[in-house]
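Example 9 (inverse folding). The structure is encoded as follows.
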């Protein structure tokens, strides 16, 4: 396995998103009338993470694996991709 889950560490963007979410929950509990604002802020935060996840070379959510190590085929490892390039076929 290239990156075992036990070695995973959240990036700064993910940590900030969690901080925004917790802050918005606290503000909403403190001032319920502000819920439209806090909901909008949480939505915007989640949209940033979603868009970052859809950009192929973005490292905002963590490192990208662009190719397998040389001995990966011998070890039976595979890479799964959802984009095979600009070829129309």
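The amino acid assigned to each position is listed next.
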């Amino acid at each position: 396995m290239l990156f075992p889950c036990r070695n995973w560490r959240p990036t700064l963007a993910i940590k900030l998103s969690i901080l925004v979410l917790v802050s918005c929950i606290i503000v909403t509990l403190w001032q319920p009338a502000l819920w439209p604002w806090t909901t909008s802020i949480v939505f915007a935060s989640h949209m940033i993470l979603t868009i970052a996840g859809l950009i192929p070379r973005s490292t905002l959510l963590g490192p990208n694996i662009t190719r397998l190590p040389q001995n990966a085929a011998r070890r039976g490892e595979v890479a799964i991709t959802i984009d095979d390039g600009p070829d129309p076929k």
